[in-house]
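Budget justification aside, the reviewers requested a transparent look at the raw inputs and outputs of the sequence design task funded under Objective 1. We therefore reproduce one unedited record. The lines immediately below are the structure tokens for a 75-residue chain.
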């Protein structure tokens, strides 16, 4: 499982796709989601603005990802 660390409460699916290197830039997310299966917490997801939170599990191209919120000392 590939761990993706965030320091915000959530990350949008389009941001995740870019941040993880699956797509080149956010403008490609709509097209990518139309042509590929992306499973979020066991459910097929086609919404690029879907919010991913700490503990969200994503399956893309037979690779498993886990969203982990890093603790911020300023919180």
């Amino acid at each position: 499982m590939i761990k993706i660390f965030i320091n915000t409460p959530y990350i949008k699916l389009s941001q995740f796709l870019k941040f993880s290197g699956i797509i080149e830039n956010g403008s490609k997310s709509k097209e990518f989601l139309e042509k590929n299966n992306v499973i979020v917490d066991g459910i097929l997801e086609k919404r690029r603005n879907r919010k991913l939170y700490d503990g969200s599990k994503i399956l893309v191209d037979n690779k498993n990802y886990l969203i982990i919120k890093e603790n911020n000392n300023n919180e």
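The CA atoms of residues 17 and 73 lie 27 Å apart. The chain has a mean pLDDT of 92. Computational costs for records of this kind are itemized in the attached budget.
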